Inverse folding.
């Protein structure tokens, strides 16, 4: 509805209200189906009008205003918005002047040079559109990890309930915590494979059965992703879990390592090379048993990418990866002062209820108009509210945080005297994404060197399955961060996951502190800390590498250093 209103040129405040409500609904910890309108309006960000829409949707699948807008706005316009750089105005121009209503028509128009002569376009934008079309076509073929995990958990839970089988586990790239997932691999240990397969294909989550056999099946889920079940004997469960978790490169390296020991390893177990028929498994019941037989410590799934984990396991030098329980607070989130859907008090209380020791509460700076960024006067007012909350909440340390825009020339969105009032300053780019790599890199490096900037966020600016991000020399930024003691952020929003696991590991190698951030816009979105932890684990980070694992006193010392 928000997107349709934006295309129709509706009042920006009305558009923002719908976007905010969508954020609240998506981030709510429990389904809102069946919740009364009276209860819905108690949720911050949901007013009477939207509560009424939700009630109408529950009974009919839509609501009147949405149906009217769908009739009014051509469906093809929504397709065009998938291309980075095409906002509502440009999309409408393309439709009204060239009747472009699909990615194929857009590509044809851009390839023939028809865009550059339109108002608001040009050769550069035309080239960017062609690049964006390819990204838009490839995006969506893989599901973001957070959503895939939710779908997998639902299927696993339903399968356990239907069969009573206890050894059921997602495998593949999902278990390794990859940022996007192609399909779900689910492994099950059962003596009766056919019974497990039948139960799997009859689950309510299944939309269509693609293939089915005695020990495996493939289905298309209503969640929009394919799921493949493999049933193995209980004695082979551990070996199969290693094999189907992967990665392929890890499995190949594991087999090569086994051969050097006169052993072979596959999804059925560990065998001597001389046991050609694989009749006498030496290990296979558990993963730990398999790795131990190969003289290796058990390797956490997140590390199984053949990036040195076998050598580390052989030498007993695997890192003790950071866990959610090690996290003591969050450095990056937003309230209703800017584009959040929960008040400053609600965000503070939610942080305290999670058992966190501290939290930095802050919002967007003044130049980020689209996110209702705070002018200096509004910032002062928000800090006064935070001071009052400090007196009220004694169980948690509240820090004055702010996500401050890095302007095109590399300067910060507030003058230094304003930054001095803040405990935590997070620098981030929110505009000018089409800058050349050298210029963008210099822009960010200037912020890295700023004495009042503690953390750099959104290093790439990407949104998974939406936009590819801007061009920046990440290695140069990481090196400069190491030189100046500036931290880099792993953003836990499921569509960001930025910095990446590879960049996080590079930061660790150079001694750059890493900050985990939820970027929460509702109190429920503090759950995104788990996503940030997953990326950190894939980056080989321990709690000693992560700012969020410091006590309040330790963090304050670091911020002052």
């Amino acid at each position: 509805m928000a997107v349709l209103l934006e295309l129709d040129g509706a009042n920006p405040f009305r558009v923002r209200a719908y976007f905010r409500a969508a954020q609240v609904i998506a981030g709510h910890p429990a389904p809102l189906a069946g919740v009364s309108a009276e209860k819905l309006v108690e949720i911050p960000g949901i007013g009477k009008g939207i509560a009424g829409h939700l009630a109408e949707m529950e009974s009919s699948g839509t609501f009147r205003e949405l149906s009217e807008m769908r009739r009014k706005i051509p469906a093809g316009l929504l397709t065009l918005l998938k291309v980075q750089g095409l906002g509502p105005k440009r999309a409408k121009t393309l439709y009204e002047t060239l009747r472009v209503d699909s990615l194929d028509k857009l590509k044809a128009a851009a390839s023939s040079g028809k865009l550059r002569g339109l108002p608001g376009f040009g050769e550069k934008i035309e080239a960017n559109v062609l690049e964006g079309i390819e990204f838009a076509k490839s995006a969506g073929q893989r599901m973001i990890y957070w959503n895939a995990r939710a779908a997998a958990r639902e299927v696993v839970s339903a399968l356990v309930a239907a069969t009573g089988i206890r050894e059921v586990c997602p495998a593949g790239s999902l278990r390794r915590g990859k940022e996007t997932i192609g399909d779900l691999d689910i492994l099950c240990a059962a003596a009766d494979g056919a019974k497990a397969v039948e139960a799997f294909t009859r689950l309510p989550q299944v939309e269509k059965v693609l293939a089915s056999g005695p020990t495996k099946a493939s289905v298309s889920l209503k969640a929009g992703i394919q799921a493949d079940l493999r049933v193995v004997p209980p004695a082979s469960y551990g070996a199969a879990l290693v094999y189907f978790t992967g990665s392929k490169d890890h499995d190949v390296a594991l087999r090569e390592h086994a051969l050097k020991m006169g052993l072979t390893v596959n999804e059925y177990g560990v065998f001597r090379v001389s046991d050609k028929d694989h009749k006498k498994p030496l290990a296979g019941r558990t993963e730990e048993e398999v790795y131990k037989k190969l003289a290796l410590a058990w390797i956490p799934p997140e590390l199984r990418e053949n990036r040195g984990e076998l050598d580390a396991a052989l030498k007993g030098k695997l890192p003790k990866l950071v866990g959610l329980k090690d996290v003591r607070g969050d450095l990056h989130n937003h309230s209703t002062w800017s584009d959040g859907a929960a008040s400053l008090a609600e965000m503070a209380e939610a942080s305290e209820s999670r058992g966190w020791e501290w939290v930095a509460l802050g919002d967007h700076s003044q130049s980020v108009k689209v996110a209702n960024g705070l002018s200096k006067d509004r910032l002062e007012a928000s800090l006064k509210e935070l001071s009052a909350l400090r007196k009220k909440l004694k169980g948690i340390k509240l820090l004055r945080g702010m996500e401050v825009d890095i302007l095109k020339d590399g300067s910060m969105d507030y003058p230094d005297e304003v930054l001095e009032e803040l405990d935590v300053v997070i620098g981030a780019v929110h505009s000018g994404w089409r800058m050349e790599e050298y210029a963008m890199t210099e822009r960010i490096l200037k912020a890295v060197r700023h004495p009042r900037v503690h953390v750099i966020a959104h290093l790439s600016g990407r949104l998974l399955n939406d936009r590819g991000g801007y061009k920046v020399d990440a290695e140069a930024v990481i090196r400069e961060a190491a030189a100046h003691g500036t931290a880099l952020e792993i953003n836990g929003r499921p569509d960001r996951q930025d910095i990446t696991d590879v960049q996080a590991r590079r930061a660790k190698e150079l001694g750059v502190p890493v900050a985990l951030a939820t970027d929460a816009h509702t109190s429920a979105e503090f759950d995104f800390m788990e996503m940030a932890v997953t990326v950190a684990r894939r980056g080989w980070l321990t709690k000693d590498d992560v700012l969020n694992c410091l006590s309040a006193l330790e963090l304050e010392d670091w911020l002052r250093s």
